[in-house]
Design brief:
219 residues; alpha/beta; Rossmann fold; 7 helices; binds adenosine-5'-triphosphate; binds magnesium ion
């Protein structure tokens, strides 16, 4: 089980506004990996994560998910891969403010038509330490708690890969540690391959592997 990037380049825009955000990136996310991605602002980290997660496609090069090349797949097939295999924890992946924690985590289960969604969602929230906040709305949760709801939601479809973009950004050190412990546990106990984009050296130091990106290149 791998996500593999072969000679991936990504260009935004065209003509005089063309910008090469990734250049010939080769990378494999293996089963059980726990990787941090560091690099300056604008270096291409989020672009890389979007492409790894099939949220965006490379301009040139290939992305293989579990051996399957994705370049010829359409939106429907790509979204199927995402739903079945990949969990996302992005800062701009907002929770639905009109739904409580339980309902937010039930949302991805809903699309799958799964029975006992409520119990599954409640279990997930318990596993991230929010068993007593099931009925709180996002506005009634702390930043760290909201981020744990996002992680619970990302885990709803039992992804093999969990891609996170600054999961501890804007959090105090205590909340930050809770999130990191949680990600570490998902990696070691549930065998989820985890990628963490971070600006924080302490966060990067707890991962098994580190990748540095500068000007769209892995260095
Ligand atoms: N849709 C877009 N159109 C044009 N340029 C873009 C687009 N998205 C990103 N870029 C540019 O591509 C480069 C890489 O962006 P990206 O978001 O991957 O950086 P990043 O490493 O995640 O930065 P940060 O740490 O600030 O989040 C940046 O220079 C950015 O301005
Ligand atoms: Mg970014």
């Amino acid at each position: 089980m791998t996500i593999e990037l072969r000679d991936v380049s990504k260009q935004y825009g065209g003509g005089s506004v063309a910008f090469l955000a990734l250049r010939d990136v080769n990378l494999v996310l293996n089963e059980g990996d726990f990787i941090s991605v560091v690099g300056p602002s604008g270096s291409g980290k989020t672009t890389l994560l979007n492409i790894m997660g099939c949220l965006d496609v490379p301009t040139t090069g290939t992305v293989l998910v579990d051996g399957q090349p994705t370049e010829k797949l359409g939106d429907f097939e790509l979204s199927k891969i995402r739903k079945e295999k990949i969990g996302f924890v992005f800062q701009d992946y907002y929770l639905n403010d009109s739904m409580n924690a339980l309902q937010n985590v039930m949302l991805p289960l809903e699309f799958r038509g799964r029975s006992n969604k409520k119990e599954v969602a409640a279990k997930l929230l318990e596993s991230v330490g929010l068993g007593d906040k099931l009925h709180n709305f996002p506005t009634e949760l702390s930043g760290g708690e909201r981020q744990r709801v996002v992680i619970a939601r990302a885990m709803a479809n039992k992804p093999k890969y969990l891609l996170t973009d600054e999961p501890t950004g804007n959090l105090d050190s205590v909340s930050s540690k809770k999130i990191l412990d949680l990600l570490r546990e998902l990696n070691s106990e549930r065998d989820v391959s985890v990628v963490i984009i971070t600006h924080d050296k302490d966060v990067a130091s707890i991962t098994k592997k580190q990748i540095k990106i500068v000007d769209g290149m892995v260095v």
